Amino acid sequence: MTPTSRFFCSDAARSRDDPLAGTAPYGSTWILVEYRGGWPPNGFDGLPLEPDTKRLVFSAAQALRARILLIRRHGRRPADGPPCWAVLRYGDDGAHRQTWGTWTRDEDLVGIVDALAAPGAPGGPPVVLVCAHGLHDACCAVRGRPVGRALSERWPDLVWECTHIGGDRFAANVVVAPDGVYYGNLDAASSVEVVGEHLADRVHAAHLRGFTNLVPAQQTAVAAVLGRFGPAGRHHYVIEETVRDSDRWLVRVTGRTPRSPVHDIEVRSYRTPARQLTCRGLSVSSAVVYEAVFRR
Q1: Are 248 and 267 a contacting pair, CB within 8 Å?
Q2: Of 157, 127, 184, which is closest to residue 10 (Cα–Cα)?
Q3: Using the 8-state DSSP alphabet, how is residue 49 labeled?
Q4: Do 283 and 291 form a contact (C-beta atoms < 8 A)?
Q5: DSSP result, 98-148
Q6: How many angstroms separate the CA atoms of 171 and 2, rounded?
Q7: What are the tens digits of pLDDT across the range 129-161?
Q8: Per CATH, is 9-214 categorized as 3.40.30.10?
Q9: Half-sphere exposure of residue 116, counting CA atoms within 13 Å on the CB side?
């Protein structure tokens, strides 16, 4: 990189061929807050909201390890009615539950706290979230906004741009919620194909970062099975057992049918050399990488 060139973390990650598998942040609950103004670099935390409301929402989210994301339609297109909020959950049984509301005053967002304490309505269409948080990381805007435009043109009612969802260097990043499936290294064309396949219940290994209800080693094992045997539904595979020995895991993956084959995957982890992992990061740090090897 020359002294006058600009560093983009996603360009650097692609040139290094950084592995995607095993990089989805863990979580099963998402809080979405539509905010049509400019997004601060730290997202919800930086909003000029009434302090008690913000504290209540943040505390309730923290108790459930829920991620709070600001959302908006691509291009900040005009919307009818007040902005919305939502609580999306992925259950241990694979059930999807959603609660939606609207807000005109800051105090209306306390409804999120009540929604977090209730089970929520089952079903509902998935929400496709595209990270386009340019003030958090330049790559999220440079790569995320073209993806947001392409997906919004195809599925205008399902797609929202959102604040930081993790893994800036894998931009463009998309998470389908409450499915809890992360995809990365997308562009406009590949995002339409990947999301179309996902909505048809076919998850491919290419571009898959992982399922957020699994830990990284399990995510890597499932991605390896999908890579070898082809796409499958979001709930086709089950983690039967995970045994850890230091920096190695033995993960047993099977299908849900009684006669499904058993796949024993050994997953190994190691740390990379220290690198600049984000556009805004002034320091370097290492990342943990996971690799899968079939044992049978």
Answers
A1: yes
A2: 184
A3: -
A4: no
A5: EEEEE-SSGGGGGHHHHHHTS--EE----EEEEE--TTT-HHHHHTHHHHH
A6: 23
A7: 999 998 888 989 999 999 999 999 999 999 999
A8: yes
A9: 24
